[in-house]
Specification:
This protein has about 425 residues and is an alpha+beta fold. About 40% of the residues lie in helices and about 15% in strands.
Length: about 425
């Protein structure tokens, strides 16, 4: 029977995940320079770098620790992969976790490791090499457009927004959405722009994702696509004015989508586990708390082992007592229960004997000769009758056929028989 697929774990509200691609060279040097700069200005508390491994692939890892809201600790790790042999780009994965729920107004963890300068090409999505902080026009070819939107919805860690231009906008309408969003969302948003003539093509591509963009409006691509043709207008905006004004409704929709509980993207679970289990920048207080927790777990394990040892000792004592009692009886043990049950069980021989006993009793109760006369033939009956006539005693006149005298009563008392003999004399 096929097993149902396991549901992916929901992303904790304390976690900020992101994945991107650095298109230029010297990604590690760029991160080192940025961390030293923030360390010298006391923006972060500490940082380190080391050789790590993610999904069995070696990479360069950077860790940083800082405070937000004055007392909330944020721990973050950036993993940078090896340069691509063909194009030279480097993929990166960034996971940050706070001590409480993440607030959109907190600084973006991406700006802790990467500079905010737009000239450094670190802010590209790993899917399609789309840029986070800029506008991304959709491909003009229909199949490429459909393929791109599917890849973004299913494999990207970013939030993708598709905006349809009702008419060709001017310079004011080409203002990106990212700078208007809260700081924590600016480097997790990819904005797509569909030309006025691409309205039908875009909705044809969104059909399989269960989404639809209104004419002159916008829609947020769902991270878990619905069934084909099943529309969901929860994160759609009917009208977006591309006249330079602030799109309040679109910003509110994107923020609401970002607050929704969603499953962890593929690969984010492993990165989060490594961040928690292999954290290097611990303070003395954290090390002391970890030691106390470990000591408590050791105490519980020792207590469980002690109880188990006592149970084994008690069982051994009972076994020795039973062995001593057996030796005192010289090994005389009662018969096994299995043999007793066998003797008390059904016996065909006992039943046969009972039936034979019943048959013998029936023969004793039957009159003598009844069975022989019933089973004998006619000739045998005549021969038996002739034999009886020949052996019969003669009567007083010598007639053999005369009836015999009646038998004397043998049950008479001795005194009466004696008187008869005396009279005869």
């Amino acid at each position: 029977m096929p097993k149902s697929p396991t549901a992916p774990a929901t992303a904790p509200d304390t976690v900020w995940p992101a994945r991107g691609r650095h298109l230029g060279p010297d990604a590690e040097d760029t991160v080192r320079h940025r961390l030293r700069e923030l360390m010298s200005s006391a923006v972060i508390q500490d940082h380190t770098e080391f050789e790590g491994s993610l999904d069995g692939v070696p990479h360069r890892a950077f860790e940083a620790r800082w405070l937000v809201a004055d007392d909330v600790v944020v721990r973050a790790r950036l993993n940078i992969g090896a340069p691509d042999e063909k194009d030279g780009f480097q993929d990166w994965v960034l996971v940050a976790e706070a001590d409480r729920s993440w607030e959109p107004d907190w600084p973006s963890p991406a700006t802790v490791f990467w500079p905010e300068d737009a000239e450094v090409p670190w802010d590209h999505d790993a899917v399609g090499q789309l840029r986070f902080r800029e506008l991304n026009p959709l491909p003009s070819e229909d199949r490429a457009l459909r393929r791109l939107l599917k890849e973004c919805a299913r494999h990207s860690w970013a939030v993708h927004v598709v905006v349809h231009e009702a008419m060709t906008p001017d310079a004011r309408g080409l203002r990106p959405l990212a700078p208007l969003l809260p700081p924590s969302l600016r480097h997790r948003i990819v904005e797509h722009r569909a030309a006025p003539e691409q309205f039908q093509v875009v909705n044809w591509a969104l059909y399989d994702l269960g989404a639809r963009v209104p004419r002159g409006g916008a829609v947020v691509l769902p991270s878990a696509p619905a069934a084909p043709g099943v529309g969901d207008d929860s994160f759609a905006v009917r009208t977006v004015f591309l006249d330079g004004s602030e799109p309040v409704e679109l910003i509110e929709t994107v923020c609401r989508y970002a607050r929704e509980p969603r499953p962890l993207p593929e690969g984010a679970g492993q990165a989060l586990s490594d961040l928690r289990a292999q954290w290097h920048l611990t303070t003395m207080e954290e090390e002391l708390a970890a030691a106390r927790t470990q000591l408590a777990s050791y105490a519980e394990a020792l207590d469980a082992m002690t109880k188990s040892r006592d149970l084994y000792r008690e069982a051994a004592e009972l076994a020795h007592e039973a062995l001593a009692a057996y030796r005192d009886t010289d090994g005389a043990l009662p018969a096994p229960r299995q043999e007793q049950r066998k003797r008390e069980g059904f016996s065909l021989r006992t039943l046969t004997k009972s039936l034979e006993r019943v048959r013998d009793s029936a023969k004793l109760l039957r009159p003598a000769g009844a069975e022989d006369s019933r089973t004998a033939g006619p000739a045998e009956r005549e021969a038996a009758a002739g034999d009886e006539d020949a052996t019969a005693p003669a009567g007083p006149n010598g007639d053999a056929s005369a009836p015999a005298a009646p038998d004397r009563d043998t049950s008479a008392s001795p005194s009466s028989s004696t008187s008869a003999d005396r009279d005869r004399d």
